[in-house]
Each structure stands twice: as C-alpha cells, then as structure tokens.
Amino acid sequence: MKSSFSTELFLLLMCGVFGAETEEVKSVSVMKGGSVTLNPERNQTQGFIKIVWRFGDKGIIIADSSEKVTLVNETERFRDRLQLDLTGSLTITDMRTEHSGLYKVQIDRNTGTSFKKFSVTVLEPGGSSGAIAGTCVTVLLVAAAAVVYYYRHRICDLKRLMEPEISEQMLNKNEDTTAEQLCKKYEEKILSVMEGESVTLKIDAEIKGDDQILWMFGPQETLIAEIKSETREITTFDGIDGRFKDKLKLVKTASLTITNITAEHSGVYKLQTSSSRGTSFQRFIVNVKVMIISVVEGQSVTLYPDNTGAQKDDLIVWMFGDENNLIAQMTGKTRATYEGTDGIFRDRLKLDKRTGSLTIRNMRTEQSGLYKLQMSSSSKGTTNKRFNIVINLRMILGVKGKYVTLNPDIETQRDDLFLWMFGDENNLIAQLTGETKETTYTDADERFGDGLRLDKNTGSLTIKNITTGPYKLRIVSSRRNLNRKFRVFICCESGPKIVSAMVGESLILITDFTIERGERVQWSFQDKTLAAGMNGDISKTAYGDVRFKDRLELHHQTGSLTIKNTRTSDTGDYQLKFLSRSGKVICWEFKVTVSDSTMNRSAIVLMNEGACE
User: Fold this and answer.
1) Strands (E) located in 393-443
2) Computed over its alpha carbons, how large is the radius of gyration of the chain?
3) Are 47 and 109 in contact (CB under 8 A)?
4) What pLDDT, on a 0 to 100 scale, did the predictor assign at position 42?
C-alpha cells in the first residue's frame, strides 16, 4: 500500500558574533588537510620585543617568539603543525576541524602592546565555502518524521534536495521518492598537492561504453571536461575565467589530470557518470599547498619558476608580501630588480636571464614572507606560483672555556642603536649607541659578569663566559628596525639528564627548536639506532630496534620522539644526533628510568643539549 505525507522544512539561520570587543577579526577559511598562514600587520611587528599567539576562548598559548614554537599539554592538537617565523607569522599545516576557532596574536613593542584576531574555519569535505565570515548554524525542523540512512562512503547531500529539478520532482509528481533516490552516491577523496606540480583525479568505478562523463569544478559546478556517451569524444574546457587553459588532460578511463596546478585550482571537483543504469557521483577535494622554504639568517635562497626555462616572449613578474609589491620583472632581454618597500631588497636580488629564477642574497627577517611569481607567454598563457620563505635563527656552537662571537653581519649606519638581549625574558645585557660609539653593559644577568665585549664598528657581541640559550639583537634607527636571533650551545656542557617514567605511559622526548627541511635526526638507545628520519621526506623514516616495535613515533619538524606503552626494559641511555645543513652535529643525552611506582601521568622530557665531537 502506498502512503504519502507532507514534510515542511523550516530553515533557521543564526550567525554567531565573536564577542563584543571592538578589535577587528579577520576571517580565514581553509579546506581540511590544507595549510594557512596568519600574518600580523607588518607595521605592527616592526621592532617588536615579543610576539605571542593564543588559541580558543581560554587564550591558550601555542606559540611564543622568545621560545620559537612552544607546545603545552592542552595543545597536543597542534603537534608538528606549527611554524613561527621571525616576522611573527604563524603557519598551521595539515588543518583539521579541531583547529577551527579564534586565534589571537599579542605584539609587544617599546611603544606599547597591540593585538590582532583571526577567525579560522576549517571546511569539511562538502562544506559550504560561505562559512567564512562567522559561525552560521542551519537548523532543519522536520514536522512529520525523519529517517537517517547511513552509508559507508556515502553522504546524503541535503543541498541537492533544494535544487530546482529535484524540488520540482518532489512537488509535482505523485510517485514515491525513496531515500535511495534522494541520497545520491558520493565517493569523496581529499588530495593535497604542492603548487606547480600535477595531480590526477582517479575514479574507482569501471567506465562502460555508453557512460556520459562530466567533470565539474567549484560551487557553480562549472563544466571543465566531458566524454560524450555516443561518440566517446573527449573535450576539455578552459573554465569561465580561463584558469584551466592547457592544464587539463582527460583519458578514456575518465581520470582527470590537472598540470602545473596553482592556488586558483583548489576546491571541489565533481564527477558525474550517467547512463541508462542511473547516475552516480564522485567528489574530490583538492588542496594546493604553498611551498615552504626554511632559510637560516644570512644564507641565500633561489626561487625557481619551473623546469622549462624562460622563453623570449615570456613576461616574468616577481612580487612580495600581501600587497604584491613588485620586486623584479623580465621580458625578453630586459631585466629589472627593485628595492621594495623601505629598501629591504637593496643589493640583494638577482634575476637569472635564462630561467627567470630569483635569488635573494643574505636573507633577513624582513625578507621572510610570501613571494609570488606570475609568468605570461603567448604559447602557455599565464601561470602563477607562490613560495613562503621562513627565516630560522642561527645556531652557534661554542666550546666550554673558550669564547663565541655573535655577528649581525650587516652594514652599520651612523645612528644605529644596538640592543643585545638574552633569555626568554629578553633581558638587556649590552648596548651600543651608534653616533657616540658608547657601550653599556648591564647586570641584568650575573652569569655574564665582565665577560661581554661589543665591537664598536660592527655591533657584534663576544661572550667570554659562554652561557647557553637564546640571544636577540634589536637594531633601531631613524630609517630601520631590524631583529637578529641566535641560539648558543656548548659542546658536551654536562652529563646526561636523569628522568623517571611509569610503566605503560607515553614518554615524549622534546627538543627545543624546529628542524629545517632536509636536515636529519637519529635516535639511539644503548648504542643501537632507534629511529632516523629527514624533515620533509617521511619515506626516509626508519625504526630499527625490534624491542620498540610499533611503540615509536618520530616528529620530523622538531626531532622529538614519542615512546608509547613504556616498559621497564626501556630503562637506559638515550641519545639524539641532529645533523645540520652546515655539517655540525648537535646531540642530546640523558638517562631514563621506567618503573611501576611513579605517578600515573604522561612524562614530557625536555632534553639536555650539547654537541658531539
């Protein structure tokens, strides 16, 4: 017996407001699995003393410029996801829904303290891109009855119910509309790809001879490729704004390849397969990642367009920052580089006439940030590429009983004021006034005694009685505000640290700095290799001791090691070797005792740093 009922849908839209404060909140949205960089205003961060990032309503600290990236117990959700550069910008990688929320940056300067807020929304697959400006809640009140159908790898796309063709079918036809008809099958995949590379959207189903294939992109579902059912003719389209011109390749199996992908190709790709047997859908969420390049202060870096080289008629434009400031351009034989805002690129840029690559020499914090390349030609059209450069602090290795010199490596100006600070509290320890060449040493930290000397010509600081830790230099003048950061280690300063843990708990061995891309770490236990890996290449991670099988996790960005389900047999000597790009080996050594009589809690161990001969 057929039965029918009428169902009324009431949609109540409620948009949340972020508190009653007058501070501006910048809204940012990112797809699940993607990355986002939160940038304070450049005029806010110039000459800063300290920058602190907080998350959530409770304002939990997740990053601190005086401690690089600091993780606390409440913020395990951010482990190996945060990168704080020396300009105060915070990058969060591999975003998940639990990373949605309010981020607040506090910027301390001599002139006062300023704040900026960001509302970050992580969009789930199939989520609305309109959920950017606030928190919008849609409540569906069903008057009669509701039946929830669960499908593995299926979702019921309620949005489709509101589309004209389905709504008309529901209202005008007297035949039954089953849940199977209303819940269209969606196979969803999330893909991440680096900007400039290619990605192939591979379908799971076997294509039949009479199938019509339609590939669509974006919220408007713009047609970008098709295979006709009768003729099997394959056609690709440029898209409304031409962003897909010469970038698509569709094969007979219906797999779609996007070449030389850029940020504008991020989004939802939808495959519709239609035949006499019915219609099915498959959806792909594509996240295009910006290439992140880590550079140590003072080094040079080269940004490459692609592998094809520049052609005679190519127009190559390099831009910097959120304002897209022009810093270099080339067309034909004509090349030009520019100093940029406040002359920060003066005598630093080199544009290669053959490849169009851009080299930035003697990198400093003011040159960190987002670089954009726009390359146009009559044959290839216009392509875009982005690079995010992060400046890391310099690590200085000293030998106990000797001295070490911290050199800012800059051209001094007459009215420069040099302020040398030490420790997480940025205690002033030495000062040089450029005009008078007067040097002042403070007693803020008695460990230095009379062991500090300032070079009146270069501003460099020599430390006779070496004290390990973070050092910071601020250079202030009428024309510039610069910052330099150093971290000093002493070779084999002391013996291993003694640590206790409880059987069954997780032991997390945490380093205190970020490992650069391409640098290697190796953990050993009782002279046997436990774990080894390289930041930036997970495939090179290896675990070598069967006693710890399935109990180890190496964190590539920090070198930290997690030992799960600890046992008494884990008691012994541990060592971490970190090989820097310069070839220096930095080590940590400590003794761990695992027993069944300590408190039932996770043990987080901060390691004793030293250096290996």
Assistant:
1) 394-398, 404-406, 417-422, 427-433, 438-441
2) 29
3) yes
4) 67
